[in-house]
Amino acid sequence: METGYVHIQSTHPCGMQICANKERGLALTWACEQFSDYIVGKSIIPETDHKPLVPLLTTCTLDKVSPRVQRLRMRLMRFHFKEVNHVPRKEMYIADALSRMQAENSNRMATVPEEEMNIYVDSVLDSLPVSDVRLMGIKEAQDEDPV
Questions:
Q1: CB 85 within 8 A of CB 109
Q2: pLDDT tens-digit profile of 74-122?
Q3: Rounded-to-integer distance, Cα 78 and Cα 28, Å
Q4: Domain count, the chain
Q5: Residue 46 DSSP class
Q6: Are 1 and 39 contacting, i.e. CB atoms less than 8 angstroms apart?
Q7: Rounded Cα–Cα distance for residues 41 and 30 (Å)
């Protein structure tokens, strides 16, 4: 049996609060759909740190769950889950390592042009209710900070 690991850190781009069941279920759905070429036709055993998701994907029948969960489960019907395991977060070593790993050649691109960002920063600094002496002290302390 081959083992594959996928770490999914699901965050909504707008910072909206959404139901944890939906969030984790959508993360699992996304992973299955992304790797469908490799897992369709095989028995897979997904692991989650979200315990309430396990019965939603295994023992609950479609008529007992909400329409949102029904749609999620219908998207997952083409995948064969041998079982869905709950693994406590503190024991998810590989997912933890993947979440901390960065690609060697990852160039972080600015989402806002530098000139526009500098104009905004200058306008914020001009409107601060701080004296120039205090602001210089803050800048010096920030420059000395190793982080």
A1: no
A2: 999 999 999 999 989 888 888 778 777 766 666 666 678 888 888 988 8
A3: 13
A4: 2
A5: -
A6: no
A7: 17
The residues facing 85 across adjacent strands are 47
High-pLDDT (> 90) share of the chain, %: 17
Structural domain including 29 reads: 20-100
CB burial class (10 A; 0-12, 13-18, 19+) of residue 49?
middle
Q: How far does Cα 82 stand from its chain's mean position?
A: 25
User: What is the arithmetic mean of pLDDT over 2-23?
Assistant: 57
Q: Which long-range contacts (CB under 8 A, 24 or more apart) does 138-145 make?
A: none
Helix (H, G, I), strand (E, B), or coil: what is residue 86?
strand
Question: Residues 84, 58: contact at Cβ < 8 Å?
Answer: yes
What is the overall mean pLDDT for the chain? Answer: 81
**94 and 139: one domain?**
no
Question: To the nearest whole percent, how much of the chain has pLDDT over 70?
Answer: 82
Examine residue 11 and state whether it is found in any structural domain, yes or no.
no
